[in-house]
Request: fold
Amino acid sequence: MVSYLRIPGWPLVYTCLLLVLLLPVVSGWAQAPARPAPEPAVGSRPAPAAEALAVVNGKPIEGSTFQEEVVGNWASRVLQDVIARRVVWDEAARLGLSITTAELNARLKALKQPYGSESAFEEMLRNTGETEEHFTLRVKTDMLLDKIVARRGSVTDAELQAYYDKHRSDYVHPPRVHLYELVTTDLAAAYAGSRRISGGEDFPLVAKEMSVAPSASTGGDLGLVSADQVPAGLLRATAFSLEAGQVSNPLLVDGKYYLLYVSEVQKGSSGTLEEVKPALLEAIKKEKGLTREAVLDALLRAASIQVVWEPLRYLNVHYQQARRRALMVDGKSVDLPLDPRIEGGRMVLVVKPMLLAMGATVKWDAQAMTLTAVKDSRQAVLTVGKPIMMAGEKAVPILAPRLQEDMVLTEPRPLVEALGGSLRWDPMRNTLFVKSVSEPETAPEPTPEG
Reply:
């Protein structure tokens, strides 16, 4: 889903024109709830279609031509940006969130600091065609979204520790060496270089004068490298056997002679929890849907959005598709012939694709109107129209299965659990996650809202 907050400011000529053209076309905006603060007015009078905007070689470029180009190339993206901004401000108003002047000024100061001066910052704005008012609006929207994300949840110390313990191998730092090379085409030159270095000359200086490798321009400096960055064989073995400050003897590799020098050795280690905490937080937030992108997508799915301007009405399909509930089994997306729906507070879907993705065998008996699923030593039998499922010898209540277009629909939970699996509904991603092998849940599942 296109995010207003992921795309830099558009050239002002497009923004001014399009905001005037498009702001009134999203239905219901006039009755929208009050936001924490009014958005600055951005816009100017769009050029009349018959008015010439420019003259090239004596030929006019009319407003109609310009507007066709704008609609075809920019309007969709700009409208989606404006819609995204609106849902953020509306959600902030609903939650009673706002940005104080002090908070806004502090963020603006931090963003301007890399430019060195106010004039350099203003030049950047001119180059991008954005006004300072619109830049401030974008920053304020970002800040509101950050507060909305924080309200949705946080990462606890226990979650950090558990994730670190489970993924410790992902945060191992391999051994590295700061490696230099001096490459010659004959042995005599290699030994000559070796004598100069052992005589006290700096390796980088000698390499810059004598080496035939491209690295000669930097004194043979290859930087900090891990084993997989050095060609396998003699070069790798030698590089990682040298101690800091040591120079190798000449090494013959592929017809050339190499002198290797290691200035620093970094031993391999596992990053401590504190060292890798930022990466852990990012990974956990992504899993939990506590990122700007995930929260904004959830807000857009929940919003009532109808584009009524004819040239962009096709966007309604985009927003409708974004609201579709998804199914993931063991980390893989499963296509369903019918969209999952909510009935009586429970999700209902076509069960066969899910069962097959779990690795079960599925058999349909048209005469008995039963669907039998077998996985390993477990069996579940559904009967169309009956609110009882047989899980082995045990009768389990279930939403009465029904047929639709010759497909069996019912709620997935009893069926998944009967076959030894587990499931979790993620409202942030609008997705049902199923695992073919049960995993303990850390928190109760929320009931999906229709």
Summary: The longest strand covers residues 256-266.
